[in-house]
Design a protein that fits this description.
- By secondary structure, the protein is an alpha/beta fold.
- The protein has one domain: Rossmann fold (3-Layer(aba) Sandwich), CATH 3.40.50.
- It is 40% helix and 17% strand.
- A ten-stranded mixed beta sheet has the order 1-2-4-3-5-6-9-12-11-10, sandwiched between helices. A two-stranded antiparallel ribbon has the order 7-8.
- Strand 3, helix 5 and strand 4 form a beta-alpha-beta unit.
- The longest helix is centred in the N-terminal third of the chain and has 23 residues.
- It is globular, with a radius of gyration of 23 Å.
- Bound molecules: 2-acetamido-2-deoxy-beta-D-glucopyranose (2 copies).
- One 2-acetamido-2-deoxy-beta-D-glucopyranose (NAG) binds next to loops.
Amino acid sequence: MAQGFFPVARRVFTVMGALYGAAIVLLTIPYFQTHTVFLHAVKIPWFSNYEMPERYGLAPNKTINLRISTTDNESLGAWFVISDPYYHALPTIPSQPADHIPAALKNHPTILFFHGNAGTRAFKARIQHYTAFSSRLSANVLAIDYRGFGDSTGTPTETGLARDARAAWNWLIQNGATANQILIIGHSLGTGVSALLAAELSDEAISPRGVVLLSPFSSISKVLETYSILGVLPLMKPLAMIPWASTLVKHAVVHTFATDTLVPRIKGPVLIAHAENDWDIPYSHSEALFSTFLDPLLPPAPSLPSNLASLTELQWSEFSAQLTTRTDARGKIVTTVELHNFGTMHEFTESGRKVVFLQTLAGGHDYLGVQEGVQDVIGRTFGLFGR
Ligand SMILES: *[C@@H]1O[C@H](CO)[C@@H](O)[C@H](O)[C@H]1NC(C)=O
Ligand SMILES: *[C@@H]1O[C@H](CO)[C@@H](O)[C@H](O)[C@H]1NC(C)=O
């Protein structure tokens, strides 16, 4: 006998609700949260041969596969990509490419690249970044796989990834790079790692050339609030209806990656870039980060009484006057340039350092950084051209 539509629909929704509830509960368990945040078990491309970067599109002996040890004795897999100007100036393909690392580090800037979650350093979109960095930006590239990723040992944690980043930085310095020749670039989860490294270096008065945050997020808890599957199913929206549930999930966040709270510690020049068509992390995260950098330069944000019913006309006019003052101050500090068909660039300079926010029309989440326009903004902002 045919069943009515509504009973079936109700049953389907009950099952879906139960699955959703189970998924949320799992997220609060550290083991599952670690696997969800890092997705390090997804080792795409599967069965990578890290000894053969050529298989993934890089020129013969332009990339050196190496291992970097951390202070807590993890061993990280890494690739060092020699910049094209250096590589092309060699009379032939180098027979011992590793011997060229110190000279390449001495003569060309280097990009220290921190990739996003899931996949390995051999992932296709990442290779495209190394190719573009080493050719269009004439820079060497050091790309690591964090602990638990690729062929690296260990299990990822937030402090562990920060250690891995520092180990990669130290490796560059030990091999002859100077701090101001190193540009830190992070993508997605890697922006959290980049911010941790940049803050640590600033605390020690070490100044890298700058920091680039590609498709960043302001913190993991804010990602949980805004994450939507393919831009249509907001993950945490249903939880908003059960106030204690979203609080529970937020308290259960083990790996916080709260870049927004690190902002005051990051001293050098910063470029934030985000595509409007990023369906994984909305560009509102980048707007929020840019505002956090800008905030100390603006008059304080006005607030309204919590009980709006008691709002007087005087309070309202004070509020709107303060808001106008703040907006005007922002307009005087921030320069905005429209880049035809490509995006919008906002920037300000504060005690000699530039903070730039590039909002692009295209690129999505994974391919933002391989756009020529984004590469060029990186090159101009950090003086990589015309050397
Ligand atoms: C570090 O790791 C190596 C090999 O994995 C091991 O032989 C060594 O004992 C470890 N050292 C420490 C200090 O844990
Ligand atoms: C590339 O480097 C390896 C050593 O890492 C060497 O054995 C090989 O001969 C080199 N290839 C060329 C074409 O020189």
